[in-house]
Amino acid sequence: MPVPARRPVPIRFEGVEKAYGPARALAAVSLEVRAGEFLTLLGPSGSGKTTLLMVLAGFTRPTAGRVLVGEEDVTRTPPHRRDFGVVFQSYALFPHLSVGENVAYPLRMRRLPRAETARRVEEALALVRLEGLADRRPDQLSGGQRQRVALARAIVFEPRVLLMDEPLSALDKKLREAMQIEIRRLHERLGITTIYVTHDQREALTLSDRVAVIDRGRIVQLDAPRALYERPRTRFVADFIGESTILPAERRDGGLLVAGRPLASDHPVPPSGPVHLVLRPERLRLLAPGEQAANRLDGHLEDLVFQGDSLLAEVRLEGGTLVAVRLPPRGPDPARPAARGEPVGLGFDAADAVLVGEEG
Amino acid sequence: MAATGALAAATTGPGSREALTRDERAERRRLLCLAVPALLLVGVVALLPTGWLFWLSLVEGDRLSLAHYARLVQEEAYVRILWTTFEIAFVVTLLAALLGYPLAYALAQLPERWAGLGLVLVLVPFWTSLLVRTYAWLVLLQRRGLVNQWLLGTGLIEQPLRLVHNWTGTVVGMLHILLPFLVLPTYAALKAIDADLLRAAASLGASPARAFLTVFLPLSLPGLLAGCLLVLVLALGFYVTPAILGGGRVLMVAMKIQENAGLYLDWGAASALAVVLLLVTLLLFWLLARLVPLERLLAGAR
Description:
The structure holds 2 protein chains of 2 kinds.
Chain A: E1 11-20, E2 23-33, E3 38-42, H1 49-57, E4 64-69, E5 72-73, E6 84-87, H2 99-109, H3 114-127, H4 143-155, E7 161-165, H5 173-190, E8 193-198, H6 201-207, E9 210-215, E10 218-223, H7 225-230, H8 235-240, E11 245-252, E12 255-258, E13 261-262, E14 275-279, E15 285-287, E16 295-306, E17 311-317, E18 322-327, E19 343-348, E20 354-357
Parallel strand pairs in A: 3-8, 3-9, 6-7, 7-8
Antiparallel strand pairs in A: 1-2, 1-4, 4-5, 9-10, 11-12, 11-14, 12-13, 14-20, 15-19, 16-17, 16-19, 17-18
Helix pairs in contact in A: 2-3, 2-4, 3-4
Chain B: H1 2-11, H2 16-57, E1 59-60, E2 63-64, H3 67-74, H4 76-109, H5 112-127, H6 130-141, H7 146-153, H8 167-191, H9 195-203, H10 208-236, H11 240-245, H12 253-263, H13 267-291, H14 294-298
Antiparallel strand pairs in B: 1-2
């Protein structure tokens, strides 16, 4: 499977809605997924991200709206005719079949010749680095290996689209990070349109071309990982993606006040409603006495924690809010206070003063 | 916790390892004590009488002899009884599987509330007295019974059918009484099958029918076999229902045992029959256990 045999297809959701009685799991979601794109649906549990994936896979019937794959309307196509590879959170490996038989299953359903099936199964297992395990039973495999079998089974028949529902959530952190890199590599190699569901924002940022943040059944922001992190559009997105401190800003004479000082920001001010300032811990620095900064906040150092790759300083502002500041773990830094409880100044650039409204 | 415990033991000097081993043994002994009442009960109520049974079947007059067993093979009446018993037991099991599997499947697909109601409907007859149900079938199936009246009324038949005091009546009654024993383990097994597996099959291109045949059915087989085994074993030793609904024309092993022991006071002959029944049952268990691991059979699916 060195070269993808099929052209990647785009996917379009048009006003897809799913209601369970009075409760709406999806509220008229419209979304375009580009051909060959790796798009992640990111949201807290119960946000509707899995429902959207299940609608796409054909396991859940939407209450309204259409789903198009390429030019084809698949809204009413049964799942077995959609030709999508799906990786389930539980892996859903068939316990009564060997690894090889599991991977061969979709080819058997398509009545491929025996020799062709054997060749493709071997290739798929090699692709996920499970050569030689074809005769094992799923229950003889480790979690990471099962995950790979599920992946091999979902791509062996060269589906039009690959769907993954929290596929790594059962693995430990180290294995999860290794698998993320493998999934990326696989996607680059196959070029297949991939939709990935997760509640782990770091995973979403690591894997995706674009991320759709979902909250209460609607997409609140759709952006590339970097844009999502650096320019969140709502308070929810800022809070959900990465670490941040969110401070209320006050409108005053066309400008903004934060903690009583005028704010210098390169970012556009939301046109109406309450405004919040989003501060990323790694964009803040402790000011040396007399040092100048575009923006300054004053407080007391409350705690200083060594975390290996960084030092986490917690600063209590005069208003009472606790701000997290991430500092390089060592090196000469005259501004670093020696003791807890000492007064410190926090500085940040106008470029890092991100502003968000309450809603998008 | 375990690590610190071991460390403490190692540092308290010689003898501590033995002390720990002693503790562990004592703990195991205490655990065993919990099983003692049940073990005693099984020993006194089941194992001893079974041993006694074996002994009786091997004694003729006052010396060891295989005469009781020889009779089972030589006398046509005994051969016929054994044949009838197996025939009826297998037919009842087969029909129970054919009726029970779809029922269990339907119940497993229903939402929780309706499935609960369905299970109650399966269980209510199960909780009713065996005798009551058997006599109810006698009434329903007799010459002027409800079933015949209805069939006559619809014009499907002109003469009442002989539905009872024969093979048919026995099978109908036993099937009704034994069906829950098949439905319940099968239902449990079907419920234990992860719905994601069927979704996975569909996403991989299996139509609902093929997904059923290639994934659901194979995974449900241990549960179904467990149910079949239960029904078969119960059917082989059934007494009341064939005695009443067979009307004396259908002789099964259990009835012959009763006759030998109760009527002719021939304990040797009765014991030999019982031993054969027991051995056949064990043989069936052994055969099935070779197909499906026993603990899987008894636990339903997984």
